[in-house]
Amino acid sequence: MIKIQNLYKVFKTESGHFKALEDVSLHVEAEDIYGIIGMSGAGKSTLVRCINLLEEPTYGEIVIEGQCIFRKMRKKAEEAEDPQENVRLTGSDLLALRREIGMIFQTPNLLMQRNVERNIAFPLEVAGVPKEKIQTRVAELMDLVSISEKAHNYPSQLSGGQRQRVSIARALANTPKILLCDEPTSALDSLTTNQILDLLWDINQKLRVTIIMITHEIEIVKKICNKVAVIDQTRIVEQGEIGQVLLNPGKEITRQLLRGTRGNYA
Amino acid sequence: MPESLSFLQAIADLLSEFKDLLVLGTWQTLYVTFLATSIAYVLGTPLGILVVVTAPGSIAPNRPVHEVLGGIINIGRSIPFIILLVALIPFTRLVVGTSIGPNATIVPLTIAATPFVARMIEQSLIEVENGLIEMAQSMGATSRQIIFKVLLPESLPSIIRGISITIISLVGYYAMAGAVGGGGLGDLAIRYGYYRYKSDVMFVTIVLLVIIVEVIQLLGNGAAKRMDKRNIR
Ligand SMILES: Nc1ncnc2c1ncn2[C@@H]1O[C@H](COP(=O)(O)OP(=O)(O)O)[C@@H](O)[C@H]1O
Ligand SMILES: [Mg+2]
Fold first, then answer.
1. Closest residue of B to A180, CA-based?
2. How many domains, in total, are found in chain B?
3. Backbone angles phi, psi at A259, to 5 degrees
């Protein structure tokens, strides 16, 4: 489904080069809920942003559903055993890729001047879906996340959990096969967090959407993920089936995360 | 007759004597400032948008374009209006056929206002949260869609407030242009109030200008507040 091979990301800043990801490899299978856990600053957001190319990787390869969306090898072509050409999606290919991957963030990022209905319609408008189809699709989506009664309300009138539900409906509008979640519950209380996690679980089960769940909280991984990768200071140090990693943590950082409770913002 | 009544009487006499001139001056002031503002927004809005989207880290980063436009805007904004008014006389003649009167004054006013408008638009657009732009990008929105579906609609209340500030500034600039025969209330104040020592005419024109400014401010803020959905609870 998603194959990430030897991914590197180096930010060029005024104070020099800054490594955010080093030699990251990850294999997500269809319908996984794949947790990526790590402390703040570990590189989680950078990694997930590489998947829809909001961030351009420095080196490595990303293949999504058999399609290579990025490839740039660290070794020069003439040194490599089997040289492959570089790939870098641009223009309409890039936009098409992004339309096929949903993404939700820590803050719901709703358009404050649009009501619930029109917020959910946004990605459909962007993709050029005809008006009549937008209406029926939006109704379906509002139903899916149980926000129909707020259709004509504005974000300022919603609770944090309701806003995040709207953002989930919006991310699913173009029926993506993949949903990237960058700490979507970090700003919510524990009850609301559980409701959102239940919703994501349902979406994974019903719609067969593959979910990548970024978090710094082990509780979230325990609750909904079937696989997990632990990322520590730019590198993935441990990954695998959830039971395996949590029962037999091989690395100190994993044990630390397991001890950590909610509110450990490191 | 009590003091206050005689004062009111004097004002009433003055109003009836200068009624036509005051009405004309008010009309010219409104006409010139609204028209100049409209043209300045037609020219300045794309300029402001371009400055925002070409900024480093924005949706279409382009340092040369960003800096050249920024430079032009700053130069435009730092030329004192009175200098612009005089320096543009040949150009104004070319465009309007004359360099005096209300229509002629629209030219320098528009040119003075355009860089001002560009900065106002820039200010409004950069208030839009980065997260919204990122969200739109993650959904595969084009730069054009981000401008027209995110940046402009989300900052509309702020843009409206900017428009009223622009009109008010132009009311002031236009009053200044009255000193060189631009028409409007400023012209009236100079010709009667200053050259003919009729300080009561001066007083009435100033009151009218203050009323115009207040009304525009109230309308602008009211409209911005009413349309801003962030205020709905
Ligand atoms: N655009 C950027 N430019 C420079 N450094 C960045 C940029 N984005 C992120 N970083 C740095 O990369 C590191 C990883 O960031 P991030 O992926 O956001 O971490 P996480 O999501 O795990 O908290 C941090 O040290 C951060 O400061
Ligand atoms: Mg992060």
1. B138
2. 1
3. -75, -30
pTM: 0.92
Give the pLDDT confidence score for residue B132 in this predicted structure.
Answer: 98
**Between the CA of residue A153 and those of A56, B36, B211, B212, what are the distances in Å?**
37, 38, 38, 36
Burial class (CB in 10 A: 0-12, 13-18, 19+), A5: middle
CA B227 to chain CA mean position, Å: 21
The alpha carbons of chain A give a radius of gyration, in whole angstroms, of: 19
Q: Distance between CA atoms of B40 and B207, rounded to whole angstroms?
A: 27
Task: Encode pLDDT of B155-184 as tens digits.
Answer: 999 999 999 999 999 999 999 888 888 899
Task: Give the gap in angstroms from C-alpha A181 to the nearest C-alpha of chain B.
Answer: 12
Tokens of A216: 């710094």
Confidence of residue A264 (pLDDT cuts 50, 70, 90): very low
Per-residue tokens: B171: 């009311």
User: How much distance in Å is there from the Cα of A193 to the middle of ligand 1?
Assistant: 24
From residue A215, how far is each of A95, A160, A182 by CA, in Å? 26, 18, 7
Cα-to-centroid distance, B56 and ligand 2 (Å):
22
Interface ipTM: 0.92
- CA B45-B52-B131 angle, to 5 degrees, is 120
Strand partners, B181: none
CATH code at B15? 1.10.3720.10
Distance of alpha carbon A188 from alpha carbon A220, whole angstroms: 12
Of A58-67, A248-257, B206-215, where does mean pLDDT reach its minimum?
A248-257
Q: Is the CB of A44 under 6 A from ligand 1?
A: yes
Interface of B with A in 129-168 (CB under 8 A): 129, 131-132, 134-142, 145, 149-150, 153-154, 156-157
Taking only the tens place, the pLDDT of each residue in A39-72 is 999 999 999 999 999 999 999 999 999 999 999 9
Percent of chain A with pLDDT over 70: 95
User: Are A230 and A258 a contacting pair, CB within 8 Å?
Assistant: no
Q: What is the pLDDT of residue A262?
A: 43
Regarding the beta carbon of A266 and ligand 1, being less than 6 Å apart is answered no
Q: How many residues does chain A have?
A: 266
pLDDT at position A263: 44
Distance CA B46, CA B60 (A): 14
In single-letter form, the type of residue at position A31 comes to E
Which residues constitute the domain of residue B208? 2-231
